[in-house]
Amino acid sequence: MIGSLFVTGPAGTGKSTFCGAFKEWLTRSDYDSIIVNLDPGAEYLPYEPEIDIREFISLNDIMSEYSLGPNGAQVVASDLLIDNAEKIRSKLDLYEDYYVIFDTPGQIELFSFRPSSPMLVERLAGKKGMLAFIADSVVAQTPSGFISEKMLFGSVYSRFYIPMLFVLNKIDLIGDEVVDKIKSWEDDPDLLYGGFLDEKGEMVKDYFLNIINAFKESDIITKISPVSSKDMFGFDDIYSDMSNYFQGGEDTDTEYRDE
Amino acid sequence: MIGSLFVTGPAGTGKSTFCGAFKEWLTRSDYDSIIVNLDPGAEYLPYEPEIDIREFISLNDIMSEYSLGPNGAQVVASDLLIDNAEKIRSKLDLYEDYYVIFDTPGQIELFSFRPSSPMLVERLAGKKGMLAFIADSVVAQTPSGFISEKMLFGSVYSRFYIPMLFVLNKIDLIGDEVVDKIKSWEDDPDLLYGGFLDEKGEMVKDYFLNIINAFKESDIITKISPVSSKDMFGFDDIYSDMSNYFQGGEDTDTEYRDE
């Protein structure tokens, strides 16, 4: 394994689509990669995973075995991931010089907020793990939605505390102008503050401005990576960040190749 | 309706248990209240709801009707809540001088992060709605867990932007000393910062200190309400906050009655 990207984010932001499209982009760019599906409840996947947790964990079995409905079964299934870490690990070891993309369970808390998940990342990837937080462009196009996504990102980051990308997915749905607007909020908290005022009216003290500035003043969290899994746009940038982290930026030719 | 409390939080933090216990506390204190279950996927409820969304929405029906697995069906079911708002509303109108407790779907994003939910709250409660964010004491006892919970709280708050309580549930599991420690973090960001350093080692710039200070400098978000649904501890405080908001603090006798 060269490095692992654990793809997380709220349900419906396009995690699985991102995983499939990014894998295809890597293949076209001559980088070896595999996808590991970590969602025991996945019904349809837009890719063919090399390793699939559903070989080891069946949601239907859990529902009948523990007499649980879908809600409870999903929580139990996500807690069973750690018990299967060694089995996955031994399969992973077959892919030596590969990037590994981990597609995590559909709803964010089944992975990002389970107590065992940071341990799972450690067991599967050692020190070679990073996270991609997939944010939905449609939600992020309002100031309140953007702030909410950033705080959710921060919440996940606090749990894992490993390098993490803020991937603004589905930008094909909002267009370049809106992407630029979102980026301008990131660069200029006062603009975001003004936008929030326009959207929500009165402001609760300086709460949001403080939050926004806190993000702004931190290097790790300010970068937005706009992508479109549909158009395969922005993947060179994601790759370059990954490569930078895992290999100290030695392999940066992709940036130039695609420009 | 005197006022409505929408109870949200990650799966497993004890939302339904809190709803049931708080309702019992209100009844014992001679305040009229009802519980509305908004979780179409609830299998077992530790209370008897006066109004139940499962009368209108069936997860099993959705699974077969839309050919969906449990994952997808839960998302569809939560999006159907808004279509049933009027039906619930007409039942609510039967309870004039009541507090209404809304128990929301098990996983946080099925309610807190669906685009239609702020509209749902508006339709069900008008201007008489507030949120209770149920945080898990066991998670909140480490600095990183506490920060993560607070940011998740902030993320939800950004979406709804109505008064919101940070309810530290299950304090019976961590004991008074740990509750005091968590409260001291809230009052003194430097202490939390130090704790985070001890826990995680090196710090990414001033990111967390900025975040912590941003929370600290805002009145709306700094208060922690420790409760134990098991012991019915702390409910007088929750009630007093609710009453303050809905009735301008005119009914504050409960505070004294229970002391």
Automatic annotation (TrEMBL), chains A, B:
Regions that span the bilayer: none
Q: Which InterPro entries does the UniProt record give?
A: Gpn (IPR004130), P-loop_NTPase (IPR027417)
Q: Which domain of life is it from?
A: Archaea
Question: Which parts of the chain are coiled coil?
Answer: none
This protein's name: GTPase
Q: Return the similarity comment.
A: Belongs to the GPN-loop GTPase family.
Q: Name one GO molecular function term.
A: GTPase activity
Keywords for the protein's UniProt record, in alphabetical order: GTP-binding, Hydrolase, Nucleotide-binding
